[in-house]
Amino acid sequence: MAVITMREALNQALREELRRDETVFLMGEEVAEYQGAYKVTKGLWEEFGDKRVIDTPITELGFAGLGVGAAMVGLRPVIEFMTFNFSILATDQIINSAAKMLYMSGGQFKIPIVFRGPNGSAFQVSSQHSQALESWYAYFPGIKVVMPSTPADAKGLLKSAIRDDNPVIFMEQERMYGQKGEVPEEEDFTIPLGVADVKREGKDATIVARSLMVPLALKAAEELEKQGVSCEVIDPRTIRPLDIETIINSVKKTNRVVVAEESHPFCGVGAEISAEIHERAFDYLDAPVRRLSGAEVPMPYAKNLEKLAIPDVNQIIKAVREVAYLDS
Amino acid sequence: MTRPALEAEKLNSMTKQATPTESRAGAEDASATGVAEQEIADTDELSREHQDQKAKQIDRTAELDPETLLKLLNQMILIRRFEEKCAESYSLGKIGGFCHLYIGQEAVAVGALATLRPDDYVLTSYREHGHAIAKGMSPDEVMAELYGKAGGCSSGKGGSMHLFDADLNFLGGHAIVGGQIPLATGVAFASKYKGTDQVTLCFFGEAAVNQGAFHESLNMAQLWKLPCIYICENNQYGMGTSLQRAMSLHDVSQKACAYEMASEFVDGMDVLAVREAVLRAVDRARKDYLPTLLEIRTYRFMGHSMSDPGNYRTRAEIEKHQERDPIKLFTESLKEKGVLDDDRLAQMEKEAREVSERSARFADESPEPDPKELFTDIYAS
Fold it and tell me: Does B220 contact A66 at a Cβ distance shorter than 8 Å?
């Protein structure tokens, strides 16, 4: 297997799907001539030309809606948001049009579209450019939400998202584009949506982590192993539909859970996972589910404050020790 | 003046040449409405205007054969009677939620859709019963949708504001003001992408023009030369707020200048004026992938929805516009032209009533959606 970056893996997925299916096109701000603000779309404009790799004006509501309309009549748009912060301008089209079209048309119009781009915290870009929005989109029936944490997952899941007949919110992580990992080289490598991955097996506690939190959870698990605590790390990879069974099965084995996320806790994905665990596996729990979330503040600019707003490895270790009652 | 500005002016004067001058007069006249205390023009003036409008409409009949003319009238009458039936059913509690009637605006949908091929696309707002029927959708299925029944065109899941028919390329019924405008732009984008010559008609009210979605869409459509025709049905009120209280530039057609887009102002009470203007726009779209903005001035005789108290305009204002009723005008024109007689008109009226009554019976008898339908059509498999 080749070792490549998350950025390269995403690029491969886009290139392969553009080659495979003429109805796939890529649209967004700076995706073509500029090669992508984060270079995810590097080289695609050269290969596929103006027709299929399209630079847009800065008009998020407009091109998101354009994509949904094109999907109504048989195209498969991949709409890039330079970051998901800007998708906020497009939520009317994502939620009111894309998510509901199939239902309110009585099953007549499916919307095969991918909205993708970086989500979550970045490096010192302050409040309006550094936020995790997955719980917003995951709230709505009709939408799928995907959050890969490794280059292989990114490639396999993006290819599946493009082939899916539903609107898919595909959230990358700005801090992770340069992260390297092994990616299978076979042409048609895909990973199904809605299937969680056990990133590390363990028996004493479960850490449910997604996106940026996965590498941190794995580091925490390594350290905890040295302290005699065996952690299982589960990455749901798809937030909606959520593979809750894999999480529940792990909880039944370990009886202790920490859910780590960089997003805010209130009405968040961690809250949902916690509620599901309490409803389905209450009798198996030896401690209440512990959520570890981003601070309830807009993201600050100052480096030290920014660091304090996102969970880190030490906090994950501390949380696992708490649910294992090791320090009491 | 910059070169683009000059070109825009040229383009505008070019398209405006085709605009009937009496429509302009109508625009100025109409722009005074919305003020409750306005003076109502005296009967003689109205009568003169009416005669003038009729003479122009009779001129326009020259190009069309009698059957085509009668078909247009027939559709307008059917929509009027259908909407009246909707009002009745709503008051009986058979239709729930919001129900926005098209009475007074029939000439717009009928004139515009008469220019289309069956494979052309239509997207519109929540005031769309008329467009759906003009596109060829079954009144039975439309009424059943309003009744929330399984036999409805959207299986009872959409309701009055979300009528769809994939087979007829009727792409909805959208209930967020202006939400259909980017969608229609995308449908037109897809036609160009696929290399077809299908055109897309996008209908919206004048209040949608104040939304960002309108401006973002027009910019992209002209920038990328997309075959979309943006039809602003200016009925002069966004719910209860008059255009004068909501729009800094009242002349909607002029807004196309900002995007170097062709535009026209059209008298929406004259079904043939609408047809001619949309035909010009359809030609531009089909042959050259060019978009157009049409401002079609009309008036709704009913409230915004069935729950509208209507205290923002006077009875006199409504009556004045009813003098310009598009069905009344067209009926008189066709009679004077010798295409229509009282017998034929009575037959049309009778058929329209029968179709409307039958649609209500169909809707009544159609079963409610099966409870298991609650959880279908959420995701495509």
Answer: yes
Amino acid at A97: S
B18-67 pLDDT tens trace: 333 333 333 434 443 444 444 455 667 778 888 999 999 999 999 899 99
A237-258: pLDDT as tens digits: 999 999 999 999 999 999 999 9
> Which one is catalytic: A8, A17, A29, A60?
A60
The domain spanning residue A168 has which CATH number? Answer: 3.40.50.970
Task: Please check whether residues A13 and A99 belong to one and the same domain.
Answer: yes
A145 neighbors A137 (Cβ within 8 angstroms)? yes
Task: State percent of chain A over pLDDT 90.
Answer: 98
Cβ-contact B106, B79 below 8 angstroms: yes
A206: domain range?
197-323
Q: Which chain B residues touch A96 with a CB distance below 8 Å?
A: 175-176, 179
B202 vs A: CB within 8 A: no
Cβ count near B14 (within 10 Å): 10
pLDDT of residue B41: 52
| Closest residue, chain B, to A56 (C-alpha) | B220
Tens digit of each residue's pLDDT (9 = 90 or more) over A102-145 = 999 999 999 999 999 999 999 999 999 999 999 999 999 999 99
Give the span between the Cα atoms of A172 and A155, in whole angstroms. Answer: 11
Cα–Cα distance measured from residue A216 to residue A212, given in angstroms and rounded to the nearest whole number: 7
Q: Is A60 a catalytic residue?
A: yes
Indicate the residue among A157, A183, A209 that finishes a domain: A183
Q: Kindly determine whether residue A106 and residue B190, on different chains, have CB atoms separated by under 8 Å.
A: no
The three-state DSSP-derived secondary structure of A174-206 is HHHCCCEEEECCCCCCCCCCCCCEEEECCCCEE
Our CA angle for A155, A158, A163, nearest 5°, is: 130
Cis check for the bond before A112: say yes or no (omega within 30 of 0). no
Show the beta-strand stretches assigned E in chain B. 121-124, 170-173, 200-205, 228-234, 237-238, 241-242, 262-267, 292-297
Please say if the pLDDT value at position A41 is more than 60. Answer: yes
Q: How many CB atoms lie within 10 A of CB B21?
A: 9
Residues of A in contact with B165 (CB under 8 A): 108
ipTM for the assembly:
0.97
Considering the entire predicted model, what is its pTM? 0.93
Q: Same domain, yes or no, for A228 and A161?
A: no
Alpha-carbon distance of B163 to A241, in angstroms, equals 28
What's the average model confidence in pLDDT over A268-289?
A: 98
Backbone angles phi, psi at A114, to 5 degrees: -115, 130
**CB-nearest partner of A70 from B164, B181, B190:** B190
Q: What is the predicted pLDDT for the residue at B8? A: 45
A129: left (phi over 0), alpha (psi -120 to 50) or beta: alpha
Is residue A190 assigned to a domain?
A: no
B191 interface with A at CB cutoff 8 Å: yes
Pair (A9, A123) in one structural domain? yes
Region B327-340: mean pLDDT is: 97
Q: Residue A77: which H helix or E strand, with range?
A: strand A76-80
pLDDT of residue B309 exceeding 90: no
Given CB atoms, is B184 within the 8 Å cutoff of chain A?
A: yes
Q: A113 to each of A23, A28, A74, A282, B4, how far by Cα in Å?
A: 11, 13, 10, 38, 35
- Domain boundary assignment for chain B: 65-362
Query: Which one of A116, A148, A183 terminates a domain?
Result: A183
Question: Residue A282 maps to which CATH number?
Answer: 3.40.50.920
Q: Is B381 exposed, middle or buried (0-12, 13-18, 19+ CB in 10 A)?
A: exposed
Let me know whether A176 and A231 are in one domain.
Answer: no
Assign a CATH topology to domain B65-362: Rossmann fold (3.40.50)
Residues of chain B with Cβ-Cβ distance to A165 below 8 Å are: 380-381
